[in-house]
Amino acid sequence: MNRPETMTIQQKKKKRGKIRVDDLQLFALSLPTTIWYLLFCYIPMFGILIAFKKYKVAPGKGFLWSLIHNSPWCGLDNFKFLFSSNMKTTIAMFRNTVGYNIVFIVLNIVIPVALAILISHLYSKRLAKVCQTSIFLPHFLSWVVVGYFVYAFLATNEGLVNNVLISMGINPIRWYQKEAIGYWPFILVFLNVWKNMGYNMIVYMASINGIDGSLYEAAVIDGASKHQQTRYITLPLLKPVIIIMFIMAVGRIFNSDFGLFYRTTRNSSGLYNAFVTLDVYVYNSLFKSTIPTYGYASAAGFIQSVLGCLTLLASNAVVSKVDKENAFF
Amino acid sequence: MAIRAKKKQEEYNALDAKKNASNLSDGMLRFNCVRPAANVAYSLLFIALALVCVLPVVFVAIISITSEQSIGQYGYSFFPKQLSLSSYRYVWNMRDLVGRAFLNSVGITVVGTCIGVILTAAMGYTLSRKSYKFRGFFTYFIFIPMLFHGGTLSSYVVNTQILGLKDTYWALILPICCSSFNIIIMRTFFTTTVPDEMIESGKIDGANQLRIFAQLVLPICLPALATIALFLTFAYWNEWYLASIYISSNRTDLFPLQYILVSIEEKIQFLINNAGFMGADAQDMPSETMRMAIVVIAVVPIMFAYPFFQKYYISGLTVGAVKG
């Protein structure tokens, strides 16, 4: 009665053999998705080569024609520009992209883990549920909407914060001007943590709920305090999830949450150095400048794609060392 | 020894406090909970956090019903001196713009979610079948885009120059309807919930793979479909980036609601211009409160929907986070 085994042998046989009707039917089923992937993921991959072209407009022709027929290959010229005359912005955007991400990674692990453990201690499960649902709310809002929330608090004339400052006799601050640039790193970090807290908390709460209750029972019988239980049971059992979340975040260290940096700051030129990241730079130079600088934008995009790919591969290599089960591929 | 006894006493106190909590059935839990003082502290902490997350929405809602004069005098406030619904009246007068955008958002969300769920489920299902000959190839096929992407510019060039999506609804739907992340979640669901025996039994009954997928697999995977549908619904409803790239600023008929918000943030003039030809009186338009009124219109559907669908959302998150 070892039917499953014989079935797998049969399947293996089939797999080695010719293409079956089944395979064709399954292929037909996945065909629309395959076409989508070709159009929206694979064809654009070749566009990365724009970084090595010197774009010149051919009058009366479209972008693509100009690109292919009128723009000579220029080697690394676009990169040279990015790292010579544009140095200040380049440094700022790399510093911001990586720097903010490092702070986000640390805070988005420490705070949600702490909150997930604390919320599991609450007596009232109903209160826990209501609070968890409320904390989840920002995750469902767009950065555009959050940008308006921020504006309601920080607007120069009407904003709540300035009203409070005035009523306390302190000079109001023009939050969207250069004078407030020192505050924005903190505001951006706060907003990121605020928006992602609920999401991350739920990931950790799910793992905590999955912990075998008998472990705690045994600990109580041995006289372990709540603190000791957290230290010696909950945290060690959360470690794999924490590691995976950490490494996944590290793999995306060259990507930035465009909406956070662009919408909440209202793209104010005075604050530019505090919020320019690779994504913001690419977007601004493509869609917001009067003469789009395709070359430099694509050079920055190229660096982002390549470095992003490398860090993801590296982090995956680390995951498969730590825990083969959780490696991506 | 004394400390031990004290701790025991505290545990009994905790027990007393919990006696009223009727939903506590697990006997062991009763002896193993934090001190009442800690419970109060934690409760206060979480109530504070919940307020921090919810109050901004309330604040914006209050601003939207504050009178413009009150804002001019006292600024935004949680306790306005004077209330007024004129902002909503103006939004109603501009229903050709805002109402249309609302319908656009609804339409894009519905169509995009349907297309996305079908594409995701079909690919996820084929990848979950161990006997599928091209399984290995297609697994890599959907993994590679997770690693490497062409960047904003090349996507833009392909979508506008080759696919001709500029200024169409499809530009707001197609680019985000599928994602490798969702396909992997779907594949994990299918692998764990659809046994090979079921597929075999379908085949014995003479069904082809398409029919097995549509009539056998999908009905038992409704929770998984709901999860992906929710991911997509919220993603589409909150989408503004695609509109800012692919929709020209004069094609207001294509604007989704979120992009109306972006436009009026960038220039309030946009509202006044559009109010002009729509017959609304631009002179005494309550521009400040009106913006907040549109924010409220964009947020309210989500606020009332997500608590009910959270369950499905969370099941997707946990699968996705563990196997991602």
- In terms of per-residue confidence, which ranges of chain B show pLDDT below 50 for 5 or more consecutive residues? 20-25
Order of SSEs of chain A, N→C?
A: HHHHHHHHHHHHHHH
Question: Spans of chain A of 5+ residues with little confidence (pLDDT < 50)?
Answer: 1-5
Shape of chain B: globular
Total of domains of chain B: 2
Task: Examine the coordinates and then state which fold CATH places here, giving the name of the CATH topology of chain A.
Answer: MetI-like fold
**Structure class of chain A:** mainly alpha
Order of helices and strands of chain B: HHHHHHHHHHHHHHHHH
Count of DSSP E strands of chain B? 0
Radius of gyration of chain A: 26 Å
Q: Tell me the greatest interface.
A: A-B, 115 and 117 residues
- How much strand of chain B? under 5%
Percent helix range of chain B: over 70%
The CA-CA distance between the termini of chain B, in Å, is: 50 Å
Question: Can you describe what's shown?
Answer:
- The complex is a heterodimer of chains A (329) and B (324).
- Chain A is mainly α.
- Chain A has one domain (77-326): MetI-like (MetI-like fold), CATH 1.10.3720.10.
- Chain A contains 15 helices and no strands.
- In chain A, helix 5 (87-121) packs antiparallel against helix 11, helix 6 (125-136) packs across helix 9 and helix 11 (226-251) crosses helix 15.
- The two termini of chain A are 34 Å apart.
- Chain B is an all-alpha fold.
- Chain B has two domains: 2-91, no CATH class; 95-266, MetI-like (MetI-like fold).
- Chain B has 17 helices and no strands.
- Chain B has helices at 2-19, 27-31, 36-64, 68-74, 86-93, 98-128, 135-147, 152-162, 170-173, 180-193, 196-204, 209-220, 222-237, 241-246, 257-266, 269-277, 287-322.
- In chain B, helix 10 (180-193) runs antiparallel to helix 13 (222-237), helix 11 (196-204) packs across helix 12 (209-220) and helix 13 (222-237) packs antiparallel against helix 17.
- Chain B starts with a helix and ends with a helix.
- Residues 20-25 of chain B have low confidence and may be disordered.
- Classes of the chains: A mainly alpha (329), B mainly alpha (324).
